[in-house]
Each structure stands twice: as structure tokens, then as C-alpha cells.
Write the C-alpha cells for this entry.
Amino acid sequence: MPADSAPAGPTGREAGRRVAAGRFLSCMMRHPTNTLHTGATEMRIYKPRRRKTRLLRHADGTRERVDVLDRYGLPIYVESAKWYIECRDPRTGKPVRRAGFVDEAATWAKANRLQEDLDRQAAGLRPESFERERRGMGDHVAAFRRALDAKGNSARHVTKTISRLSAVAGGCGWRHADAIALDPVMAYLADRRAGKAGLSLGTCNGYLRAVRAFSKWLLRTGRIRRDPLAGLRLFNTAPDRRTVRRALSDDELRTLFEATEKSAAVRQGMPGPARALLYRLAVATGFRANELRHVRPADFDLDGDPPTVAVAASYSKRRRVDVQTLPAWIVPRLRPWLDARPSDDAEPLLRVPRDTGRMIKADLEAASIPLADGQGRVADFHALRVTAGTRLALAGVPMKIAQDLLRHSDPKLTFGIYAHTDLAQRAAALEAVPDPEAPPTRRRRRRKKRSK
């Protein structure tokens, strides 16, 4: 053979054997695999391989993707970076494949959870929690709505909760329950605060409560294995309180009651005497508008010791029956209204409209009472509840009793939100504090009169 000629490759039978061996290894060892034989299910993880290709450009400008071949003319396979899980469902016999992770240990952990689910499902010991994670978000939200309705929540509360939950799920792009995460929620609320909506921190907390309740419900019903929003914390609303209510003084209350009682105007279907009774009842009990909207004549016990009024659990904010003690000054004003109605009347005592804020605003303006003070605090219907808490604080009622009367679970709410005192009352209280630099006062001694 000439010295300048290239060495010849394998020919004949040797080349055929090498090609056949290469094809056999390529088919039988396509990817690395690890198999676990425990339980009723055989579980394995593997890294799939695909053919390595390259883009070939021809002289006529066309392109073609062709396989990259090795020295023996066989295609080269490239290993995937991610592990995959494969097993067979013992109930149906169908193969089950799930994507794993780049880390092999994490993939085995997911494979073990999958194997446990399949084995227990085959034995009828556990619901199909893994398949539930793959259900659409719409199915989970619809089931969550049914759960809220079954608990006896009001239609307004259910509608608001589902609306806020759907807004967050759509803004974060959640399609399945396993896609729920905390970071997208906070990013979505940050965009809403910076956008045209300009959500307050209090409104953002409403969205967070809706999403957190949904996540806890998913975990409680076995639809997810862990709570992805366990680290969620509400915003501190103190720096961003956009509506701060003020307490009405006794003179303002007296003026409002008398002017509304004599008013001939009918506002939102309520005549003047009915509105005056509504305002008096709100100050006397501290009830919210929705609670007053559903109070019936049968809920009052004016002849009891003490007289009381009850709120049904379905309309109370705490979702339990609340029995409130009535002060003595409201009883004679309530009695004519209750005597005119049957004791077992199931209809509400007063037809309270939905927009109570607009109604009381008109009555405050008619009574020449300012809607806001110098500090920007406003007077609306909920300000009557603020007034009830403030009157308890000014009367020296102990904190525990005031907390029970206002039905607060946290005493900070009792005196931190509802117990407002204005500047004049603070100044009057400070007048009783002596000046530390004032000279001490001398007491005059009484001289005893000498007897003649």
C-alpha cells in the first residue's frame, strides 16, 4: 500500500457486525434508567434521549434539518437534562408518565408520592389527590363556591370572594392548583396598586384573604399536598388608610335624631321616623348595616332582664348567633314599633336600603352636621358603630366588656379603631395633670378660736 494513502476502514463482515452492534445498543440503551420495585407499582425514572440534529442549508436556499451521524453512520442521541417518571396504574394497567426535575433526588421524591397515591387508590384508601391537582382551576373555583354556599355564607360575601379569587387566578395565569404560588400573587397586587385601579392596602388584604381561604380549602379537601400560601401575611393598613371615620358627639347625635325624626323626606324608601330609629339602634347596639338589615321583631326581648336583641348566625360577621344587651334609653323608643308588629313576624323590623351611606349623608347635611372634621375623618353610617365604641371608652367601660359589646375577637380593634377621642376631650383630660415645675402650694393652717 502506498505511504501517502489513508488507512482503510473496516470492510466486509467486520463492518456489518459493528453497524449491527451499534444499532442494538442504540435501541436497547436509549436513556439511563433507575427502577424501584416496591409495593404494587413498578416505578422508574429515566432521562429520554432525542436525536441530535443540525440545520443544513442547500445551495438553492432551502433548509433541511438532518441527523448528526457518528463515525459509523449512526445517529447521535442527546440526553435530556430533566428526569421523567414512568409507571403503570395498577387499577387500569395504563402507563402513567410525569415530568420530574433536573435533580435526581427530587424526582425520586415525587415518584415516591406518585407511587403511594396509586397504590392506595388501588386499595380504595385515598381519593385521587394527584389527579385533582391536574383539574382545571375553573373546577376548583366552582367547588369552592359550593362549599361557601353550604357553610351558610351570605350571597354578597360569596360573590365578592369568588370575584376576587377569579381576578387573582386570571392575573397570575393559574390553570391548575399546583401552579398556585405566593410570588405571582404579590406581583399581581403590586401591579394593581400601581395601575389605574390604585388599590388600597385594605382592599389588597381582601384579595389576600380570598386567595388564602381558597388555598386552605384545597389543602383541607386533599386537592393539594401542601399549602403554597402558608407564608402569606396581610399588609399593614395603618400607613394607607383612605377612609378614617370619626365619632359623633352627643350634641351631634341629638341633632341628627331630632332632625331626622321631624323630616318629611323619604330617602330610599325609608320615612324620617324609621331612619331616626335606625340611627338610634345603630348607636345603641353597634350593629353593622347588614346586621340591622335582617333584625326581626322576634329577635327582640324588651321584657327580659336585661333587654336583649339577637342577630342570626347567617347575618353576623362572626357567623354565630350574637345576643346584644340593649341600653335602657332605647327600650321606650323601640316598644311602639314592636307592639305594632306580630311577635312572630319573620320580616325585618326596618327596610334598610343597600346604600345607607348616601342616606345618612343627606340626613347629616339636612341637620347641618359636618361630614368631615379638621383631621379628614368622615362621618358615614359605619361611623355610628365608631360612635358606639367611643362612647363606651369615654364612659370608662372596661376593655373586656367593651370588646364583648362590640363583638371583637382582638381587643386592639376595640380601642385601636373604634375608640376615638377628639382633641378637646384629650385637652380636658390633660388639664388634670399638674405642672411639674409649678411651686408647691402651701396649706393654710386653721387657727383655733380661743374661748372667752
Summary: The chain has three domains: 20-126, 134-240, 250-423. The longest strand covers residues 33-38. The CA atoms of residues 5 and 19 lie 25 Å apart. The chain has 16 helices and eleven strands.
